[in-house]
Design goal:
heterotetramer, A mainly alpha (about 280), B alpha+beta (about 500), C mainly alpha (about 325), D alpha/beta (about 575), C: about 325 residues, mainly alpha, MetI-like fold, about 75% helix, globular, D: alpha/beta, Rossmann fold, 8-stranded mixed β-sheet, 21 helices, 22 strands
């Protein structure tokens, strides 16, 4: 079922555009480091130099080659976003499915716990924990992921309730199948479509959130090259040298927009086909 | 809030206004806040960094640059520094020691009034000194006056104070020029301190804004502006934005990049105070391998000082030579300029048994250039195979492990003498490198007893020890940059990086 | 989206009271969690206040005066009883009453949030209905594309670009920072509000407008809309009397969530524009480890969040009982 | 003639195939035409086309719908809109979704009347009273959700009649209603047509209902009219097959399913559409027969009506089994149960002998669903005693008990996991109960599929690819692989077309014959008659009558049972005499 939804989604124009954008970004992320003309942390010129033959995109605030940093700076963002989205979706599904399946008190307790989590503005949540545990890329990704849990769990709980109430799950319960197996083998396959949409959307949000955190200085530590960090580092020079800021923003946008388009087209295809078998 | 009832229908008006196009809005701002430009009552609007913990108490511990900026307008000390770094008389007119420099008699300036109109007398000085000297108050300037015997502070007559010391101390006049040691009316600190400065507080909201107005009975030169409004902003970019959109006249903090991008924009100029402000990398001598002077010297040899000046500070700095400055009155110490020498550094490291040195530099990035300095240093060090990580931590974390970081970035804005007292002698809280050089300590003691004429040669010898053995990498002296709108006239640069302490001749044109 | 148990039995009032009680419980848990987290923060508030120059004895003395040396439970209990008695405590950082610090900031933030909501709701409906009605037309496609772009765009980038465009670089028609001087009411400074409100509104409309568009399309495709057509009603009546109320009703839970997100989203926007609201205060309180201020900020934000969330649930429940 | 329809064709835009094709009929004022067809036959599309309306993705490509000398399909958009409601009105299948949830009844009833509000309200009030609803302000202020299903449907009818149309199209108006409610709605329809001289088109899948309400019947199959006339005189093999598949509440007969599946849109239409499933198909059927008058008196689209007429209906009457005297496999005594504090079952007691089929009969709200949930152990708020095969059923049941007591659900679309193939669905219980995997498990699965007559090649299909009847049989197979002793079937045929229902009922009957015990939960007395040995009637959570099927259905004693029996409709019996 799900593969066919993906297949149908992939044939839409917006999905193709999305895949194209993601492809370009993926090329930059994967092949970029190979083609970077300078080491990402080498100071090779005066700060904020205009674009020239030697520095096609100019230099940054410290006199490093912007192009090289751009080509090198996607890897961290990518794996961090994937990790964050993964944590968010896995934990969120776990909570959401458990709440939907157990219902009653378990449901109430889990959902109120999610409310508690949601009540912290995301940025404060990260700020507090980064202050508490020290800055690390894994921690930041994990925190962004945890911040996603309430949202994901709500959506999946909503999606799972009809599945849990459906007769085939009822049959499994009546026959005394173990709860874990029912959740994993019966309920989970029933919510793959919203799950995929969530995963896609959260990936996009993770890109945006992690870029924001790097911009604010809670993500990747300097002197590493990272698109979000580059925006933060160079924004003071925006009016003198816009490229060191705009170039990474463009790539972040391409990445997020690409993911968004793909997620949306899946969601659209799902919306058009689900429930009207 | 209290004015709500005067303004019926504001919500509707504001909503309509918000919905309207931007053009109508440009001219629309708080009605009663118009600046009478050029006139006697002109307002000077200064952007400063946010400090939610600030108070009006000039003796408070841990004062931010913002609080010190305001204190300089409200309070005065017995002496003060002029923009060239020279100590001049302020509330005192004379300080006379006894023969062994253990008791000082201070003559006060007559006819000085506090901003509440009362007269400034010796009783106020005694009270201020006793307050400062009481360790209970944790005053930030305490370190400088530790030699004062609190029981030996007495008023001789209304304009004479006598202060006894626990040990002989010569450069008494220099010490009192510190902004942390002002005089306030007896009994008013810390709650509602009253000073003798050219301005008095009109409104004060910590962390947001303070307004001070001219004190017309000020004993010195009467300022030309009627009001100074200090508004606090979260970051320097916001200060720059406020300056650009003409919401403030001066941005008191600007990093080199901002300064560069603002300079030359219409109507904006740059106040570039060159001085001996140092950003330095401290190396903790309690921790291996920084207890080995060879390692410290190797790291000093790794720095490309020209690159630090050009790239970390955007050219708004000058090369330094691994010793503090703050001695504008003295000739340069006779030590050669240290230059990048990778081979020598490698050799020293190998001798010290640290060929693959790897460590982290911690900084809270509080001041512009701190992170950049760390990064340039890391890049330079990599050339010798030394792996340096830049560890940016929040301010509280830096403070919480103060004195325990193996390598960190620190700054020093004050003249050499108080620097020595505050952060270079052993067992000072400010000395987070725990550097303890017996010869340096001996010279310091000598300095405290030396007559003014002999100070320079002692200080130059001390610089030389720093250069040879010191625990800090001092690659550059950094300029203090303040972009301002060119309608502000009369600003002066200051070697100590506090040009906004000198507002007497500043006017705001149209 | 909206969660939780619908009123299955008992009166709606009882259900609402139940939810409010749960809300109080959530707030209590939030405060406990925040308290525990701050205890684990590195860096001692007394040390932060006194700075690096203070001696250990001075730090210990200040800790005593601030009551930080008492057992955790006692500290928390002291704070809680104070809050329940209407006393939010005093800032550790500058000793001022928390209520005095926060009152103007709450007003500022809520003005910002409510103004944005006042724009987001009608604009979303307008744009959503228009694009749904003109489905697949050029404006519709443009809106869908732009809104995709915006959901991918971090708020700080939007803010940064708006400042550069309207205040500092291209046009210089608006203030580049949105400082509301202390003592002033935010709406005395409409020009300062334009950019922050615009940022929040843009982000909100791009999200909510899409939802309205989708639910309007659903409403237009519904059986009752078809029935209205079959009754021979005019196109306009079908659109505005039959489809629109239901589309709006279907979007209400999402609108409440957008409101909740807007309230908490002011944190970033306030930071970008240096707007003196709850968000900027919260950031400085976190930086200074000023627990009472932090607690109060988070409680206000969490309450606002919970209220809007509850509204979302109420709307969903109303919708479900239809 | 009041209404003349001819050549109406609706095409699916995407594929270009016709959904309905060349439909024509005439209708006099005051008379009711029934349109009968199974799901997918195109009858709803036809109903909408009569108002000049096609759903998204479909277009009316030709034909005339003349009402009062005006051809609706030829009208420009604006005039067509005026004609809707005032000339032709529509009553939707599901008023719960077709009435606007956010508007009051007054608004919905008066809008489009083009009358001053006071007059409009007066007319609406009298109409509401005519359909048996209160016409007071309090009622008019209500929203649709505050009404019961039957009330909603009567409001929808009043709404349709209010502008004074000449023709009213009712699309499955009683589907989903209880028999007694259905009876009231039908009465309203008949009465309105008579009193207001309205022509009505009544679309339904239920032959009994159509036979009851309509003067003449249009039988639609594969988007075409295959027969037009009286059901009692049916000549087309499809009509006759349908009738043979319908169970009767008055006597038990063998139900004959129609083999194969209904044609989809885009099926080959060069010949007779029913030929692939027709027992009488011959070579000539590969060309399309015309709709012509046949000897029985109807119009039929069939080449072979003569042959068909010669083969009599195989009305095999099956005798009710003798009363069982064996031990009881299930005994329910004093069962009370409820939801969230509200009691829905009161002191329910009954017993089921081994090998017997017990029908648990009740309308919606009778508690029959709670009852079946209690039996399988899904219900938690219950007290009383249930003894199964000598063991008292505890809340926590052991594996064997669960295995021996199997449950088949009502909704064929939900009872199988859409993500599992047929075979995989069957392997789950085999692994769970018997620890079987691999070849042996597959062998047992295929065995069960054979038993329910699901061809082996469907084993790897997903439920979405199966028809409703096939899914229900797979669900039965899944119960069978567990080797149960008692099968609880909860309304398992109610969502199925009659031709498919027949196959399932016959399957269950054969399982009974093999000794399986069964509880059949239903509201349909005809199905009860065709399968049950004993009947227990539930009303408002209480058992009001029990006994053998024959006794309860033929001579009910409780007033409730009597009214239920009276409201149950049957297809006409006169069929045999027609040939």
């Amino acid at each position: 079922m799900s593969t066919s939804v993906l297949g149908r989604a992939a044939r839409t124009g917006r999905a193709r555009l999305g895949v194209g954008l993601l492809g370009v970004v993926a090329l930059v992320v994967v092949l970029g480091p190979v083609f970077a003309p300078h080491p990402y942390d080498a100071i090779v010129g005066p700060p904020l130099a205009d674009p020239s033959g030697a520095f096609p995109l100019g230099t940054d605030i410290l006199g490093r080659d912007v192009l090289s940093r751009l080509l090198d700076g996607g890897v961290n963002l990518t794996w961090m976003a994937v990790l964050a989205a993964g944590i968010g979706v896995v934990l969120g599904s776990l909570v959401g499915l458990t709440a939907a399946y157990r219902g009653g008190a378990v449901d109430a307790v889990l959902m109120r716990a999610m409310d508690v989590l949601l009540s912290f503005p995301e940025i404060i949540f990260v700020l507090l924990f980064v202050s508490m545990l020290g800055r690390s890329t894994v921690l930041t990704s994990a925190l962004v992921g945890v911040a996603f849990v309430p949202g994901v769990s709500r959506v999946l709980r909503g999606a799972a309730i009809p599945v849990v109430g459906s007769d085939y799950v009822l049959w499994a319960r009546v026959n005394g199948l173990p709860a874990g197996r029912i959740l994993l083998r019966e309920v989970l396959p029933g919510v793959t479509s919203p799950l995929m949409v969530e995963a896609g959307t959260r990936l996009v949000w993770a890109v945006s959130a992690i870029a924001s955190l790097s911009y604010l200085g809670f993500g990747i530590a300097p002197p590493a090259a990272d698109w979000g960090l580059m925006v933060g580092e160079n924004q003071d020079g925006l009016s003198v040298a816009p490229l060191p800021v705009l170039a990474p923003i463009a790539l972040i946008l391409m990445m997020a927009l690409g993911g968004n388009l793909v997620a949306e087209s899946v969601a659209r295809t799902v919306g058009r086909t689900e429930g009207r078998v | 809030m209290t004015r709500t009832h005067h303004r019926p229908g504001h919500l509707t008006r504001a909503l309509t206004a918000t919905a309207l196009a931007a053009t109508t809005l440009a001219g629309c701002s708080a009605p009663d806040r118009t600046t009478a430009a050029g006139s006697e009552d002109a307002t000077l609007r200064i952007a400063a960094a946010t400090d939610p913990g600030e108070t009006l108490n000039p003796y408070a511990s841990n004062q931010s640059p913002t609080q010190q900026l305001r204190s300089a307008l409200l309070y005065e000390g017995l002496t003060r520094l002029d923009p060239t770094g020279k100590v001049e008389w302020a509330l005192a007119t004379e300080m006379t020691p006894n023969a062994d420099l253990t008791r000082w008699t201070i003559k006060l300036r007559p006819d000085v009034k506090f901003t509440d109109g009362t007269a400034f007398t010796s009783a106020d000085v005694v009270a201020s000194v006793k307050y400062l000297r009481d360790p209970q108050h944790a005053a930030q300037g305490l370190a400088f006056i530790e030699k004062i015997d609190p029981n030996a502070v007495e008023a001789v007559d209304p304009l004479t104070v006598r202060i006894g010391l626990s040990a002989p101390f010569g450069p008494f006049k220099d010490i009192w020029a510190n902004v942390l040691l002002p005089m306030t009316k007896a009994g008013t600190a810390p709650e509602k301190p009253v000073g003798t400065g050219p301005f008095a507080v009109k409104a004060f909201t910590p962390g947001r804004q303070s307004t001070v107005t001219r004190f017309d009975a000020y004993w010195g030169t009467r300022p030309m502006v009627g009001t100074v409004e200090i508004t606090e902003f979260q970051n320097q970019q916001a200060q720059a934005n406020a300056l650009l959109s003409d919401q403030v006249d001066i941005a008191s903090g600007a990093n080199p990049t901002i300064a560069r991008s603002l300079a030359g924009k219409d109507g904006i100029q740059l106040l570039d105070s060159k001085g001996d402000f140092t950003l330095r990398i401290g190396l903790n001598t309690d921790v291996a391998p920084f207890d080995d002077v060879r390692v410290r010297q190797a790291l000093r040899l790794l720095v490309d000082r020209d690159q630090v000046v050009a790239n970390a500070f955007g050219g708004y700095a000058r090369v330094a030579n691994d010793h503090e400055g703050g001695t504008p009155q003295c000739p340069a110490p006779g030590v050669p300029q240290r230059k990048q020498d990778i081979e020598q550094a490698k050799k020293l490291l190998a001798e010290a048994g640290q060929p693959n040195l790897s460590f982290a530099i911690t900084t809270d990035g509080l001041l512009p250039g701190m992170r950049e300095l760390a990064q340039v240093f890391a890049e330079n060090a990599a050339k010798a195979g030394v792996k340096v990580e830049v560890n940016v931590v929040p301010v509280p974390e830096l403070l919480s492990k103060w004195g325990k970081w193996p390598a960190f970035i620190d700054f020093n804005p004050i003249p050499y003498l108080p620097t020595v007292i505050g952060s270079m002698l052993p067992d000072r809280v400010g000395n987070a490198t725990h550097w303890d050089n017996p010869e340096f300590v001996r010279l310091a003691d000598e300095l405290f007893l030396a007559p003014a004429a002999g100070q320079c040669s002692i200080m130059n010898r001390m610089h030389e020890i720093e250069y040879r053995d010191g625990a800090t990498v001092v690659p550059a002296f950094v300029n203090v940059l303040m972009p301002y709108r060119s309608r502000v006239r009369g600003l002066v640069t200051d070697v100590n990086g506090r040009p906004l302490s000198f507002l007497s001749n500043v006017s705001v044109g149209s | 989206m909206a969660s939780s148990t619908a009123p299955r039995r008992g009166s709606p009032t009882r259900w609402l009271l139940g939810r409010l009680a749960v809300g109080l419980l959530v707030l209590f848990l939030v405060s406990v969690l925040l308290f525990l987290v701050t205890q684990a923060l590195p860096g001692d508030i007394a040390r932060i206040i006194l700075g690096k120059d203070a001696t250990a004895a001075q730090v210990a003395d200040l800790r005593g005066r601030l009551g930080l040396d008492r057992p955790l439970v006692a500290q928390y209990w002291h704070w809680l009883t104070g809050v329940l008695g209407g006393d939010l405590g005093t800032s550790l950082d500058n000793g001022r009453p928390v209520a005095d610090i926060l009152a103007p900031r709450v007003l500022n933030s809520f003005t910002l949030g409510l103004m944005s909501m006042a724009l987001i709701l009608p604009l979303s409906v307008l744009i959503g209905v228009f694009t749904a009605y003109q489905r697949d037309s050029l404006p519709d496609r443009a809106f869908v594309a732009v809104s995709s772009l915006f959901t991918a765009l971090p708020a700080f980038v939007v803010g940064m670009l708006l400042i550069a465009f309207f205040a500092t670089s291209v046009f210089r028609v608006l203030p580049g920072v949105s400082n509301i001087p202390p003592g002033d009411l935010p709406w005395w400074h409409p020009a300062e509000l334009v950019l922050p409100v615009t940022t929040l509104t843009l982000m909100g409309v791009m999200y909510l407008g899409r939802l309205v568009r989708a639910s309007f399309i659903d409403a237009m495709d519904s059986e009752y809309a078809q029935m209205a057509v079959l009754k021979g009603l005019s196109g306009r009546r079908v659109l505005f009397r039959h489809a629109l109320p239901n589309a709006v009703a279907a979007s209400l839970p999402a609108a409440s969530l957008v409101a909740a997100v807007t309230i908490t989203g002011v944190v970033v926007v306030e930071y970008v524009y240096s707007y003196p609201g709850l968000g900027t205060e919260l950031v400085s309180a976190v930086n200074a480890h000023d627990l009472p201020v932090m607690q109060a900020c988070v409680l206000v934000l969490a309450t606002a969040y919970y209220v809007f969330n509850l509204l979302a649930d109420v709307f969903t429940t109303l919708g479900r009982s239809r | 003639m009041e209404v003349e329809v001819s050549g109406v064709t609706v095409r699916a835009d995407a594929t270009g195939h016709d959904i309905v094709r060349d439909i024509g009929f005439e209708l006099a004022r005051g008379s009711v035409l029934g349109v009968v067809g199974e799901s997918g036959s195109g009858k709803s599309t036809l109903a909408l086309a009569l108002l000049g309306f096609a759903r998204k993705g479909a277009t009316i490509t030709g034909g005339r719908v003349v009402v009062d000398d005006v051809d609706l399909l030829a009208l420009p958009e604006k005039e067509l809109r005026r004609a809707r409601g005032s000339r032709v009105a529509y009553v939707p299948q599901d008023p719960a979704t077709a009435l606007n949830p956010s508007l009051s009844l007054a608004t919905q009833l008066t809008e489009g009347l083009r009358l001053p509000r006071r007059e409009a309200l007066a007319r609406v009030r009298s109409l509401l009273e005519a359909v048996g609803l209160p016409g007071d302000d309090a009622f008019l202020r209500r929203r649709p959700r505050q009404l019961s299903g039957g009330q909603q449907q009567r409001v929808a009818i009043a709404m349709a009649v209010a502008p004074g149309p000449r023709l009213i199209v009712l699309d499955e108006p009683t589907t989903g209603l209880d028999v007694s409610t259905q009876a009231r709605v039908l009465e309203v329809v008949r009465e309105l047509c008579r009193s207001r001289d309205l022509a009505a088109i009544y679309v339904s899948h239920d032959l009994a209902v159509v036979a009851e309400v309509a003067d003449r019947v249009l039988v639609v199959y594969g988007g075409e009219v295959v027969e037009h006339g009286s059901l009692a005189r049916a000549a087309h093999p499809y009509t006759r097959a349908l009738l043979a598949a319908v169970p009767s509440s008055t006597h038990r007969h063998r139900l004959v399913p129609i083999p194969g599946r209904a044609p989809g849109i885009g099926a080959d239409r060069s010949g007779c559409v029913f030929a692939p499933r027709c027992a009488h198909a011959a070579e000539e059927c590969s060309s399309r027969p015309p709709l012509v008058e046949v000897p029985s008196g109807t119009l039929a689209r069939c080449w072979r009506t003569a042959e068909v007429a010669r083969s009599p209906r195989p009305a095999v009457v099956v005798d009710a089994a003798p009363p069982f005297s064996g031990d009881e496999i299930l005994t329910v005594s004093g069962l009370n149960a409820g939801y969230g504090g509200r009691q829905t079952l009161f002191e329910v007691s009954f017993g089921l002998a081994r090998g017997e089929c017990l029908a648990l009969v009740g309308e919606s709200g009778s508690g029959k669903t709670t009852m079946s949930r209690c039996l399988v152990g899904l219900h938690e708020e219950q007290e009383g005693k249930i003894v199964f095969d000598g063991q008292v059923l505890a809340p926590r049941r052991d594996k064997d008990l669960r295995r021996e007591l199997q449950y088949v659900f009502q909704n064929p679309y939900g009872s199988l996991s859409p993500q599992r193939t047929v075979e995989s669905s069957l392997l789950v219980p085999l692994r769970h109960y018997f620890g079987l995997k691999g070849t042996e498990a597959r062998r047992r699965a295929h065995e069960a599929l054979d038993r329910v007559e699901i061809p082996t090649h469907l084993a790897n299909r997903y439920p979405a690819e199966l028809s409703g009847g096939q899914r229900q049989r797979v669900a039965i197979a899944r119960a069978l692989v567990c080797r149960p002793k008692l099968l609880i079937c909860d309304e398992i045929t109610s969502a199925l077309d009659v031709s498919v229902q027949a196959a399932v009922v016959e399957l269950l009957r054969s399982l009974l014959a093999e000794g399986l015990s069964m509880i059949f939960v239903t509201h349909d007395l005809a199905v009860v008659r065709s399968i049950a040995d004993t009947v227990t009637v539930l009303n408002q959570g209480r058992v009001v009558e029990k006994g053998t099927a024959d006794a309860v259905l033929s001579s009910p004693t409780h007033p409730y049972t009597r009214s239920l029996v009276a409201a149950t409709l049957d297809v006409p019996d006169t069929f045999e005499h027609a040939g």
